[in-house]
Amino acid sequence: MCGGRRVERPGFYLQPTVLTDISPQNAVFAEELFGPVAAFHVVENEAAAIALANGTPYGLGASVFTADTERGERVAAQIDSGMVFINQPFGTAAELPFGGVKRSGFGRELSQLGFDEFVNKKLIRVAPVGAAPFGPVRVA
Hints:
The chain has helices spanning 46-54, 69-78, 111-116, and strands at residues 17-19, 37-39, 58-59, 61-64, 83-86, 101-102, 125-126, 138-139. It has a domain at 43-139: Aldehyde Dehydrogenase, Chain A, domain 2 (3-Layer(aba) Sandwich), CATH 3.40.309.10. The chain is an alpha/beta fold. Pfam families: Aldedh.
């Protein structure tokens, strides 16, 4: 649609780019794009949008844009991605977990979930003396 040209300067720079009418035969259709590139797809309905979003081997982040935020939350819950932002292209912060799924990563960094990635936790179950082998217990 627009952009897509190299910026003439030292380094590897690309103009902000908008892609439309991307066929499944185009390599960009299934690639995880990094850089100033937005790929737009037109679909028939909500189910087709969710299928398109999930039809990739990647799953770092996704965005849902809608005037109906309850619908956005329902759609976001069905998208197989580590992060889904509603009405924002992204919105990470140090106190929020960051990470993807599928070929975009495993686990989270940042926030309490990120700390948990580096900790070995131990479960200690305490049963009162004389309790049945799988009777009442408390977790310490």
